[in-house]
Design a protein that fits this description.
Strand content: 5-15%
Structural class: alpha+beta
Shape: flat
Radius of gyration: 16 Å
Distance between the termini: 54 Å
Order of helices and strands: EHEH
Number of helices: 2
Length: 79
């Protein structure tokens, strides 16, 4: 008999705020709400896809809710 795998994580593809409402603390509150709701539903992992390395505000937000950089991709231009 095959064991069933339980889905324990999900991906956040985009996390976009209206530029006029864009403050670090509003985004932080939204991220905290997403993480709290995910934990209540039994998820243990969350992956934020493709945060650009120099996007300091996004990195700050996700690190504040316990995130860490798991992978780093480099894009090189051929000359």
């Amino acid at each position: 008999m095959l064991a069933q795998r339980r889905i324990d994580g999900f991906q956040i593809r985009d996390f976009i705020l209206d530029p006029e409402e864009k403050t670090k603390y509003l985004a932080l509150a939204m991220a905290q709400m997403v993480i709290r709701n995910a934990r209540e539903k039994g998820y243990r992992r969350t992956e934020c896809c493709w945060i650009v390395e120099d996007n300091i505000p996004s990195l700050w937000i996700w690190k504040r809710v316990g995130g860490r950089v798991a992978k780093r991709y480099r894009i090189y231009e051929k000359q």
